[in-house]
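Form 12-C: Joint structure prediction
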Amino acid sequence: MSDHKAPKISMVVFIDALGWEVLKGRRFLEAQLPVRRKLRSVFGFSSACIPSILTGLLPREHRHWSFFYYSPKTSPFRPLKPLGFLPKSLVDRGRVRNLISKLVKRAYGYTGYFQLYNIPFDQIDKFDYCEKQDLFVPGGMNRGKNIFDHLTQAGVPFHVSNWRESEESNLAALKADLSQGKIKFALLYMAAMDALLHEVGKASPLVDDKLAWYETQLKEVLRLAAEHYEEVRLFICSDHGMATIHTHLDLMRQVEGLGLVFGRDYTATYDSTMGRFWFHQAGSRERITQLLEQVPGGRILPPEELKRLGCDFEGDQFGELIFLTNPGVLIVPSHMGTKPITGMHGYHPDDADSDASLLSNVEPPTDPKVITDVFHLMRAEAGV
Ligand SMILES: [Zn+2]
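Section 2 - Result
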């Protein structure tokens, strides 16, 4: 241990899906991180929330939202269409889809998170994908600057996790950099909580076990940081919470029951909590709207509301009509998954289970209320 400590380190630990309601009634680093705030989330999945945290921008501005959007002219997936002629029992197996996703990612040089999920191969040539680039590097955004652009431009020495790696490996990499005492800012990325909450739900004792594990790990990070820095500032933030599923909705079957032709009359993509529609023939919009108005468990989001949520996109990029399910209602099957699960997010930000958290050992330099404010907090902490 050196006698000369560096003056200050600011660390932001991102724990995916560590919602305000997930923490409620649980003890988690209370002594170490006494400053605790609820943050309002941004409407969308992590593919929308994380870009908002990294840029301080709303989805309308950074143009990251749900992964797939209708764009036959720019679709890079035409070569995959023939897979639609193969038996679904073969090409729709999880492992086969994962393998094809990896091959596509490599062939096109995508550096972002890329998953084909369950988009049907016979329709895949109608869609484009919004996260082709790694978000966690300078220039990673579809539009706007992220925190890494600012850090790099200002020449601040920083650490950022590799989101492709495990939590254990990300912790080890951060500790190695802390021991050097050279970095001034760090962003640690932890994704396993989200997967666990989807699987077991927020009420499970396995969530307590996971929190206890984070607590042990982060105490060790704090201890190590204090060895090498005079002042250690730690913030834990999340992107959203997790609602518990109580109802399944087979929206796809209901829409298909109208007898309209997918691709000719309309195009749809079904996320876990949303149906998103584009219309190509007169009358399709009216018929689908009429149906959706009767479907219990969700509602069509009016344009004014999408605008308030920052999800009104130029050219209706992510859908001309957005149907959102009520908290706890899961669209199954969807293009995101075919199996029912216990927890889901991507509901309306007004729902308490959507709220994210911010925990820290110091008062935040700004007054964060929304997850986009984490960006401003990071800039203030890094002095960029
Ligand atoms: Zn998730």
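Section 3 - Comments
The chain has a mean pLDDT of 95. The chain is about 35% helix and 20% strand.
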